Amino acid sequence: MSNSQGFKRYPAIRCWISHILEGTYIPEEKILDTVFGKIKRVRILATLLNKQEHIFSDSFDENQKSIGLKFTIDDGTGIIDAFVKNIDINRFSNVSKGDIIDVIGIITPSENSYSISPTEIIKKVEMPDYRLLRDAEVIEKIKLGKFPQIFDKKKPNSKIDLKEQVYEMIEKYSEDANDGISFNELGIKLGIKDNELRNIIRDLEVESRIYPSEEDIYQCF
């Protein structure tokens, strides 16, 4: 795709591990064809079965090594590994076997199966009912066929595209130590009028995808 056409933005699709394992990888597009359509990034809520150090080799120079972590996770529908490269392993010292974690990353073919690599986010979940909420959301999407589509971030052409851009921006500012993003900053960064943005925010709240952590500051669940 030429630069003049913009670039594809891949939303992190909330799904179960079984949806990944049952998918068909399309090498030409480097994308996975699933019940949710073609997906590249996923968001999985699962139990941590194991966490261990992993040595990564540079794809261009096998003599160059780096240390990272391999997380083996299970959501009750399947098991998959998530790899985090080039990190201080102490960063995840508070994440232990048996914890519920929220994982966001790219789907990659791996030895007759799939893994999540690179993994962008691994966050420990403290809310006891969060898993039920996530499962309910996945089930509803399957029943109603509400599957987010890949869109051209530079050229939004529908309300759905705008809503996904708003969600992706809130998701970005909810990661790691970030505390969300304000309504005003959202409008400025995305160039959306206040009344239109307010309607989109209301839709996302109704769908239980975001919540106000304080007045007019929004975060993802």
Can you describe this structure in just a few lines?
With 221 residues, this protein is α+β, with helices and mostly antiparallel strands. Helix content is 26%, strand content 38%.
SSE blueprint and pairings:
Elements: E1 8-9, E2 12-14, H1 17-21, E3 24-26, E4 31-34, E5 37-39, E6 41-57, E7 65-74, E8 79-84, E9 100-110, E10 113-124, H2 130-144, E11 151-152, H3 159-174, E12 181-182, H4 183-190, H5 194-206, E13 210-214, E14 217-220
Parallel strand pairs: 2-6, 8-10
Antiparallel strand pairs: 1-11, 3-4, 4-5, 6-7, 6-9, 7-8, 9-10, 12-14, 13-14
Helix pairs in contact: 3-5
Q: What would you note in describing this structure?
A:
It is a single chain. With 221 residues, the protein is α+β, with helices and mostly antiparallel strands. It folds into 2 domains: 122 residues, Nucleic acid-binding proteins (OB fold (Dihydrolipoamide Acetyltransferase, E2P)), CATH 2.40.50.140; 65 residues, Winged helix-like DNA-binding domain superfamily/Winged helix DNA-binding domain (Arc Repressor Mutant, subunit A). 26% of the residues lie in helices and 38% in strands. The strands form 4 sheets. The protein has a 5-stranded mixed barrel. Helix 3 packs across helix 5. The longest helix is centred in the last third of the chain and has 16 residues. The two termini are 34 Å apart. The relative contact order is 0.14.
